[in-house]
Fold each of these.
Amino acid sequence: MHELAICQALLEQVADVARENDAQRVARIEVHVGPLSGVEVPLLERAFSIARAGTVAEEARLETVSLPVRVRCEQCGQESEARVNRLVCGHCGDYHTRLCSGDELILARVELLREESVALAV
Amino acid sequence: MCDTCGCNVTPGNRHLVEAGGRLERTAGGAVAVDVLHGLLAENDHQAAHNREHFDRHCVLAINLMSSPGAGKTALLEATLPRLAERYRVAVVEGDLETENDAERIRAHGVPAIQITTGSACHLDAHMLHTALHQLDLDAVDLLFIENVGNLVCPAGFDLGQHANVTLLSVTEGDDKPEKYPIIFRAAELVLISKSDLLPVLGDFQVEKAERHVRELASEAPVLPCSARSGDGLDAWVDWIDAQRARNETVALPAREA
């Protein structure tokens, strides 16, 4: 259950972004997750609902964008879709490939509410 | 400053608030900030700091990962006497509870720091950093970090190590790299431990385990070894020597800088 530790790191970053932008509340957090990051999205979401309590993101929505696993072959040079436990080239089958996408764990975007927008929202 | 009528938007900052800009407004009136930071940036920063520590003190750090009971401590116990003549070794042990593993290492006259993580299922760079302060790195050439026994979470956290070694004991089955791809993909070396049991089990195929490792686009050597019989330990020590030689050429410029 390292998702809770990851969630706490996420909330620290979100709090920094809110502070830098003089925001009092966070409306939405967008995270990009690749399957090879080792993070399970349902577990991250559950951990988030616990970890956000008492933080600037208490009422925030967490939205996750799942990224595909893609590799580029060093032998034939082509890109192909892959699976987490089968990262060989989809064209020639060689295992000398490089990951182009799939191991990301990124805080992509935070939507902040400032005092005046809070007032607007009420 | 007025956000309502937009009079604070100037030609200089207009790109920030326009569609796709860094401070774009959402339909609900919230300010959208693009961040694009790794979620583990804080851990990665500490890991880089640990790596600088190691390089400055010319320490090669090897992170051992496996499921609980795959034989990480037993492997170290069998390896330490073979390394004692050439290297000054230290070990950091990670477990949820007890000093048991550190005591096993200390019985070989090797300094060992035990990290007890409580309920945490992995070591992170901050925990390791705290442990490093209890070691005199000037008196260490080779540091083994024995991670918490777990085939999932330890792979997610960089500690600042120079190499990852993942152990797979033959009693666990040869399809583990297919089932737990992330930790095997992270390995620079895969050790098939308890190889003395291969004839007894009869159903673990080293070639099959290696094929699953290759399917993870990994070129990591796959070495069978046994702490009990000594099988494969020469190849394991040769691999450590090669890492050490490579690390010296890489770390030297860092130390002189």
Amino acid sequence: MTSIDPAAQPAGPFDPPGVTWDRVSPRLITARLVVLALTFGLPLVACAVVAALVTPWVWIPAGVLAALLLWTVLLVPRQVRAMGYAERDDDLLIRKGILFRQLVVVPYGRMQFVDVEAGPLDRKLDIAKVQLHTAAASTDAVIPGLAPDEAERLRDRLTARGEARLAGL
Amino acid sequence: MSDSGPVPSSASRPAQSPEPPAQQQWRRVHPVTPFVRGWAVIVALLFVVAQQSFDGVPYGEIVDDLARLWWVFALGVLVVLSIVFGYAALAWRMTSYAVDDDAAHLRKGILFRQQRHARLDRLQAVDVRQPLLARIFGLAELTLEVAGGTDSAVAIGFLRLDDATELRADLLARAAGVKARRAGAGTAGTTAPAVATDDAGTATAPAADAEAEAPRGSVVAADAPDPAMLGATVPAEAPENQVYEVPPGRLVASLVRLPVVWIILAVLIAVGVGVAATRNFGILFSLLPALLGVGTFLFNRFAGEFGFRAAVSPDGIRLRHGLLETRAQTIPPGRVQAIELTQGIWWRGKDWWRIKVNVAGYGVEGTDTQSVLLPVGPRQEALTALWLVLPDLGTQDPAALVDEGLTGDARTDVSFTTSPRRARILDPLTWRRNGFVVTDRALLLRGGRLTRRLAVVPHERTQSLGLGQGPWQRRRGVASFTVHSTPGPISPAVHHLDAPDAARLIAEQAVRARTARAQQTPERWMETVAAVAAAQSDAQPDTEPDTQPDAGPTRPEGDA
């Protein structure tokens, strides 16, 4: 039975020792803010118009929407700054979240394929999303907001490393 | 056209040629296949025709009309039958399969042709399925499961049962890479060239021509099979030893204990009292959907798990079960990705356990039928089933360890690392049960108090690892650890571990999984068989394979 080595005590569960995190591009903040503006901002404007023209009661949902918008706008930059990934010798670490923190360890040999995606907004902002897939559907390994060059470099490196460490299921 | 023997890919091919011109030999499925598959459609069509013919005609006039219009009716039936028959014949003619050393090939479809090649070294499991109607005809469908997501299986069928089992043995032998060796033992030189031949790409084109050339009725009788296919190269079905079976009595008893039965009984009694009091029988009908639902669930479970038998063979674990539709599953060694033993509180009195497994090919949709390793069994049988999959747990006293995992908690723990006491407020019921232990070969994750569960993941089967922490967990200094396994009924996880424990676990588990993958020892399987046999006879697992050196032929395990 292997016992866990107490000497390997890391600083915190989401900060393994000896890992330097690569950050995602700050342009992801802009991308997320645009999406937020569309999802909360447009209904907010609509509510405000209805409230001004028809009935003041609609100010209540408008206020709720405004609060949500403000909160998420304040949250998004911190969220994006909390995202990080690190290429270790044999696996890739991805970390995200402030309130609900998550850390995923994906061994290169377990990767089945790598997706690089960029929607119209992402292309405009010059960022791309890299997603790693293993045979497990529950593997949630997404790195959004990478510069396209970095995304391509990462994809190629991951694929190359995956081939070198190829394993079956 | 009673039988579909092998259709030679080339008419000029000499029998028992030491070097077959085409590596692939395309064969047809049984001609009855379209009817077995589409009997419901055929019945529905006939019903529609009959209904259309009589629709709107008052009953008394039918006899008169029949006298006048019988030919219309007969013609309708004839047309429908000929269309159905023509379609079936065409569908049958367009379906063929072939097996070579690297892959299994299936071609089907009339308008939309589909060719499917399944690499045998990626074979996850082979099922021989016999639906009720196919059983009447003595037919079976062979399903090759590969880990390609939904609907990725290659279903070859229907074949005669003997042919299906023969093909299964052939496929498994090829998948295990023993083709050359096993056959070579019998007939030295004949099969050697076959091993080195190229796969799919080169052989498909000539085979396609061959299918076009093949005359419609050129079906070779089954008792005169191609000697090269059946005599020299097809290995005998690997011998199997039955390890355990589930008697019907126990299955029924286990189902009766399910809470859903008690709930429905309680509701029935309540409604009975209500009816007696109010004389309103209408309430009974409102119960009907619930009764039907529960009845269907219980019947499906009973019929699906009836006569459950598990056996070991060099090809892997073999599971047979089914009342109406029978299924014989073969899971080659090393294809089980995760195992979970569960025990609801309703089975605790009997100490019965249920075991499910994650197998890559079965996925989520096969959860209820295919992923069950043991429907219900006492602890000793559950342990036997566990050794079947994981013969070596990599620890000194596996039985004690698993016992701890099954029923122990923080107060009695020897080896498990459990949630700290401060996690109690987050998980008042199960915090003592949440725990993990790492052995040399596997990770054991324990949880659940009312429904106890123990998940076992071999290190080399770890896909990726996850760590999560919510705000309350952070306040309490705990974190949840997840192992990502292939899609299936099991999602191994352990919640509310002490944060430093969780951090060390994820760091070291990543390393352990990597080393385990690097040194997967393929020969282990047959040693296992001996260990399992010993475990069964002694009612005590044998963890040292060396004590059973004469375990029979070893078969190298292919890459999963």
